[in-house]
Design a protein that fits this description.
Blueprint: E1 13-15, E2 27-29, E3 31-35, E4 44-48, E5 54-57, E6 63-67, E7 75-76, E8 89-95, E9 110-116, E10 122-126, E11 137-143, E12 149-157, E13 167-175, E14 181-186, H1 198-206, E15 215-220, H2 225-228, E16 239-243, E17 248-252, E18 259-263, E19 280-281, E20 289-293, E21 304-308, E22 327-332, E23 337-342, E24 361-364, E25 370-374, E26 379-383, E27 389-394, E28 399-400, E29 407-408, E30 414-417, H3 436-446
Antiparallel strand pairs: 1-2, 3-27, 4-5, 4-30, 5-6, 7-8, 8-9, 9-10, 11-12, 12-13, 13-14, 15-16, 16-17, 17-18, 19-23, 20-21, 21-22, 22-23, 24-25, 25-26, 26-27, 28-29
Length: about 450
C-alpha cells in the first residue's frame, strides 16, 4: 500500500530537544521551508529518520513511501540490477545484543541486512551466514553490478600492539546472492598504508577508543577519466572509504587489497585568509563523511566530493577554528586542489549557520546543484554552484539522539532519488514554497 501524507505546513512547528553538540532553538518549523522549482533539481529524497523508519519524500516534503526498517544508511538499488523492478532498497532488518562495546556509531547491534522491494517484501537478506553469525553492518552497503553486495561491517578481535584488549575493527565483505563471502578486507592489516607518521601510529595503537578508525563510508570508484587516461589507482572496481576518527580518505585496490591512493591524515591547517580561494591546495578536513568520486555524467565527474564536518578527530586531534562551521569540498584527486566548496559563507550566513559535527552527506545533482544533509540537525537542502539555497527541508521524524536520552530529528544520510527509480504512477508535488524572509520583503514592496 502506498503512503501519501500531506506536507507539514510551514506554520506548524515541532518541539525538539537541543543537541548537546550545538545550541539550537527549542521550536522551529519542519517540512519544506523554501523551494524554487525553476532553480532546484526536482527529484525524490530518501533517508532513514530518527524514528527508525525509511522515508521517501517529494520536493514538497510529502511522504510518498515508508519502509518500516531503518538503514545505516538506506541505500537504493539500480533497477537494472534487479530485473528492471523499481523501488528496491537495502536496509537493516534485525538487531542483536550489541554488548558493552555497542553504540549508535558502530554495527555491533546489527544482526541482518537485506533487500526490500517497493511493497516492503524481503527478497534477500544476510546475517546468519555472516562471519560470527551476524552482519554487524554499519555506515554503508552497496549492490554491485555483478549481483553481489558490498557490506561495511565491524569485527571485534584482539590485535597485537594495541592498548585496548579488543578492537572494533572495520571489515569489508563482498557477499554473493547465496550469502557466501567472496572477498574480505580488514583495516588493521593496512595501518602502514594510510599515511600515518611513525609517531601517529604510536598514538593509534595507544588509543583507548576501541573503534579506532571508525570508517564511515564505502563506495565504488566507478568509471572515470583518470582510469581512462591510464591511472590504474582509479580502476572503476576499486573501493573508496574514509576514516572519521583518523581524518583520511583512501582508495583500496580491489585486486590486491592495498591502499593505492590516500588524502590526509596530515594536511595544512585552514588559513582564514585563503579559506574561500579557489582553486587551492586541500586544507585539513576533520571528522569527514560521505567521501566519493562524483559519478560519470554529472557536473564535476571524477572529482572527490566530501562532507567536511570539522568535528573533533585525529591522531593527534586536528586543530579547529574558534568559530565552528562545516564545509562540502569538491577536490581534484590528481592535483589535490579544492575546486569548489560550500560553507555557510557561500549563502551569506555566518559559519555556524551550517554545522554538523558528525554524520551528514553531500551529493552532486544532474543540474550542478548539490544536495546536502546537515545530519545533526535533520536539515537537507540544495545549493547551486554559487551557494544559493533553492530547496530546504527539516525532518519532522523524531527519535532518541545518539549518545544520550535526548530526542532529536537527526539523519545520518540523505540521498537523491530520480523520478524514474519509483514505480510508474507514484505521486509527486512541485509547488513553490516562499521562505519567510522573502515573503516579508515581497509583502513590504507591494504595500
Amino acid at each position: 500500500m502506498r503512503v501519501f501524507k500531506a506536507a507539514l505546513p510551514l506554520a506548524i512547528a515541532s518541539v525538539f530537544a537541543s543537541l548537546a553538540a550545538q545550541a539550537a532553538p527549542s521550536v522551529y518549523p519542519t517540512g519544506v521551508t523554501r523551494y524554487d522549482p525553476a532553480k532546484a533539481y526536482n527529484q525524490y529524497v530518501i533517508f532513514s529518520g530518527a524514528d527508525k523508519q525509511t522515508h521517501l519524500i517529494d520536493m514538497n516534503g510529502n511522504e510518498v513511501k515508508t519502509w518500516p526498517k531503518a538503514g545505516f544508511p538506506s541505500a537504493i538499488i539500480d533497477p537494472k540490477l534487479v530485473g528492471g523492478e523499481r523501488g528496491h532498497v537495502l536496509l537493516q532488518l534485525a538487531d542483536k545484543d550489541a554488548g558493552k562495546l555497542g553504540s549508535a556509531g558502530n554495527g555491533l547491534g546489527n544482526q541482518a541486512v537485506g533487500e526490500l522491494d517497493w511493497d516492503g517484501k524481503v527478497v534477500w537478506q544476510w546475517g546468519d551466514k555472516a562471519p560470527g553469525g551476524a552482519a554487524q553492518q554499519h555506515h554503508d552497503q552497496r549492490r554491485l553490478s555483478n549481483g553481489n553486495t558490498l557490506v561495511l561491517a565491524n569485527r571485534v578481535h584482539k590485535v597485537d600492539g594495541f592498548k585496548v584488549p579488543e578492537l572494533i575493527d572495520d571489515v569489508v565483505y563482498e557477499v554473493s546472492p547465496q550469502g557466501g563471502v567472496k572477498w574480505t578486507w580488514l583495516a588493521s592489516e593496512h595501518l602502514n598504508e594510510f599515511g600515518f607518521t611513525p609517531a601517529q601510529l604510536k598514538l593509534v595503537r595507544a588509543t583507548k577508543d576501541a573503534d579506532y578508525l571508525h570508517i564511515n563510508n564505502l563506495s565504488v570508484v566507478g568509471p572515470n577519466q583518470w582510469f581512462d587516461a591510464g591511472d590504474k589507482r582509479f580502476a572503476p572496481d576499486n573501493l573508496l572509504l574514509d576514516s572519521r576518527n583518523a581524518n583520511f580518505i583512501a582508495i583500496i585496490d580491489k585486486a590486491s587489497g592495498k591502499v593505492v591512493w590516500h588524502l590526509g591524515p596530515n594536511l595544512p591547517t585552514i588559513n582564514p585568509k585563503t579559506a574561500q580561494q579557489l582553486p587551492r591546495p586541500v586544507d585539513q578536513f576533520v571528522g569527514q563523511h560521505d567521501a566519493h568520486i562524483i559519478p560519470a555524467g554529472l557536473p564535476g565527474a571524477g572529482h572527490l566530493l566530501v562532507f567536511d564536518n570539522q568535528g573533533t578527530a585525529g591522531y593527534p586531534s586536528a586543530p579547529l577554528g574558534m568559530i565552528a562551521g562545516s564545509r562540502v569540498l569538491e577536490i581534484d584527486p590528481i592535483t589535490r586542489q579544492v575546486v569548489w566548496q560550500y560553507s555557510a559563507a557561500n549563502s551569506k550566513q555566518p559559519n555556524w549557520a551550517f554545522y554538523s559535527s558528525f554524520i551528514s552527506s553531500a551529493r552532486r545533482l544532474p543540474n550542478g546543484n548539490t544536495l546536502i544533509d546537515e545530519g545533526m540537525n535533520g536539515r537537507f537542502f540544495q545549493v547551486t554552484d554559487k551557494g544559493e539555497i533553492v530547496w530546504e527541508y527539516v525532518s519532522p521524524y523524531l527519535g532518541k539522539a545518539p549518545g544520550g536520552e535526548g530526542i532529536s530529528n537527526w539523519v545520518y544520510r540523505a540521498l537523491p532519488v530520480s523520478y524514474d527509480w519509483v514505480p510508474a504512477g507514484t505521486p509527486r508535488s512541485e509547488t513553490a514554497v516562499i521562505a519567510p524572509d522573502a515573503a516579508i520583503k515581497n509583502a513590504n514592496v507591494s504595500r
